[in-house]
Write a structure and sequence with these properties.
Order of helices and strands: EHHEEEHEHEE
Oligomer: single chain
Strand order of the largest sheet: 1-2-3-4-5-7-6
Distance between the termini: 35 Å
Number of strands: 7
Mean pLDDT: 91
Low-confidence stretches: none
Helix content: 25-40%
Shape: globular
Structural class: alpha+beta
C-alpha cells in the first residue's frame, strides 16, 4: 500500500466514501444508518468527517464524528469503515479534532455484532476502554457496546 494521507471529508469524496461504506455494510441491517451518518458529515453543522486516501487518491477509510448533544466536552465516533491500517489514521484525525475542541471524553457505541468486531479491536488498540454492553439494546439478541477514552 502506498503512503496514506488523512484529510477532512470533502463533498467530492461522497460517492467514493459511499462505495466504501457499502462494501463494509451493504446488505446488512446497518447499511441505512451508516449512509445517513455519511450524508450528515459536513452538512448539519455538527457531524464532521475525515477520509484516508492512498497515493493514487483511493479512499481507504472514512470516519464520521461529532459532539454528543447536551454533553459539554464529549465527542462521539459515529461511523467507521475501511481497512485496519487506514482506520487507525482516521481515528487519529477524529481524536485530534476532539482535542482541538477541548473535549474531555470521546465515546463510541457499537452494536455487539460480528460486523463491528474489527472496529471494537481498533478502538481497544487506540486505548479506548470498553465500559459496558447493554443487552438487547439494538434489538433482540444484539446488545450495544460502549467504549470511552478520557482525554484529560
Amino acid at each position: 500500500m502506498s503512503e496514506l494521507q488523512v484529510r477532512a471529508l470533502l463533498p467530492e469524496d461522497a460517492a467514493a466514501a459511499r462505495v466504501l461504506l457499502l462494501q463494509q455494510f451493504g446488505g446488512t441491517r446497518y447499511e441505512a444508518r451508516m449512509l445517513q451518518l455519511l450524508a450528515l458529515a459536513g452538512n448539519d453543522g455538527e457531524h464532521e468527517g475525515a477520509v484516508v486516501v492512498d497515493g493514487d487518491g483511493t479512499i481507504c477509510a472514512v470516519i464520521v464524528f461529532g459532539p454528543v448533544a447536551g454533553a459539554s466536552g464529549v465527542e462521539r465516533i459515529d461511523c467507521l469503515a475501511g481497512n485496519e491500517l487506514a482506520l487507525d489514521g482516521a481515528l487519529g484525525w477524529a481524536l485530534s479534532s476532539a482535542r482541538r475542541k477541548a473535549a474531555r471524553l470521546v465515546i463510541a457505541e457499537l452494536p455487539a455484532s460480528s460486523e463491528f468486531d474489527a472496529f471494537a479491536h481498533i478502538l481497544s488498540m487506540a486505548s479506548f476502554r470498553e465500559e459496558s454492553c447493554i443487552a438487547e439494546f439494538v434489538r433482540a439478541g444484539i446488545g450495544l457496546r460502549l467504549f470511552r477514552m478520557r482525554l484529560s
